[in-house]
Design brief:
The protein is 26% helix and 44% strand. It has four helices and seven strands.
Length: 136
């Protein structure tokens, strides 16, 4: 299993960060690896979509555990491998909140999952800095 976690803290507006999350067409504004995202229906648990990556790949996903202004997970399956992308917002005070993104990869060969994880997570620190900047 591969696990990754990265957080940024700053003065954000919860509604702004949630708008950037829940309007999937905005994902490419904060994640430079994404070309586009299409979601079937509203931003709610169990709805599905497709992420088109700039490298030409597409990744089907399903939303899980959507909690408005707090968190959501999008889950993708590549054969036996499951990739879970977690997105969490924690309010620390009236002026600061922490945004945390996690990636968990399971169901494959350890070396394969490690290599896949390193590739998938390489841009996360930069994308989260951009998300923080857009959320003020």
């Amino acid at each position: 299993m591969f696990k990754f976690k990265f957080s940024v803290t700053g003065n954000i507006q919860l509604e702004k960060v949630w708008q950037l999350y829940s309007n999937v067409s905005e994902w490419s504004k904060w994640d430079s690896d994404i070309k586009s995202v299409i979601l079937e229906g509203d931003f709610v648990t169990d709805n599905a979509g497709v992420i088109k990556i700039k490298n030409g790949q597409s990744l089907d996903f399903t939303l899980k555990d959507v909690n408005k202004l707090q968190s959501f997970t999008n889950v993708s399956h590549l054969g036996a491998i499951t990739i879970e992308f977690g997105h969490f917002i924690k309010t620390n005070s009236s002026e600061n909140s922490t945004i945390t993104h996690t990636v968990t990869i399971s169901g494959g060969d350890e070396k394969q999952m490690e290599n896949m994880g390193k590739e998938i997570t390489a841009n996360i620190p930069e994308s989260m800095k951009q998300l923080l900047s857009l959320s003020k």
